[in-house]
Write a structure and sequence with these properties.
globular; 8 helices; mainly alpha
């Protein structure tokens, strides 16, 4: 399949625009569902959140579960950035995460007010930083921003192709993000929920 080239497309703005567009659509969808349904069937019910404070989690099993879930989507997206389906695939992945985050923010606001907003922020922190870096690396590969593909000092001798370096960096960021989600994030959430 021939690779599509996007030499003049402002790819950083495109990825940020995808995120904010779908985030806004998630907010609209949650508002369309209505306060009664969100309060009744919402995930952020104070009873369920209270149960999380004392739930025991096998972090190793959770890490493997997250690896299966996250790496499957990441692998398909990473493969697609080398084909003509890269733009819709990467936009779809970013869009889904942004839509879910927007929906959760409204759900948190309806069910738990300000404490729910903080809870949602803690549920995606700190792993979201590494997931965003991973998507950023895939975006650089997809849009072939050759002017920005300068290798770090000393790496040019080791890596002949900077796109392979970006792909491996994205994989490392994704795995590190999964590790943070499995081992660090539950500790932060439990400590916050116990203080609520």
């Amino acid at each position: 399949m021939p690779q599509l080239s996007f030499p003049k497309l402002p790819w950083k703005g495109f990825l940020a625009g995808c995120f904010f567009l779908f985030f806004f659509l998630g907010i609209l969808a949650a508002n369309w569902a209505g306060q009664e349904k969100l309060a009744q069937y919402g995930l952020l019910n104070s009873y369920y959140v209270g149960q999380l404070a004392y739930a025991k989690l096998d972090a190793g099993a959770y890490f493997l579960y997250l690896c299966r879930r996250r790496l499957r989507v990441f692998a398909l997206t990473a493969l697609s950035v080398y084909t003509r389906f890269g733009v819709p695939a990467l936009s779809g992945v970013i869009g889904w995460y942004a839509f879910s985050l927007g929906y959760l923010f409204v759900n948190a606001l309806v069910c738990m007010k300000f404490q729910g907003m903080v809870l949602v922020l803690l549920s995606v922190f700190p792993q979201i930083i590494l997931y965003a870096a991973s998507c950023f690396g895939l975006g650089r590969i997809l849009f072939r921003s050759s002017t920005e593909l300068a290798m770090p000092l000393g790496m040019a001798r080791i890596w002949r192709n900077p796109r392979i370096f970006l792909l491996l960096s994205s994989v490392i960021c994704m795995i590190a993000g999964i590790w943070l989600e499995a081992y660090v994030n539950p500790v932060l959430l439990k400590s916050y929920i116990r203080r609520m």
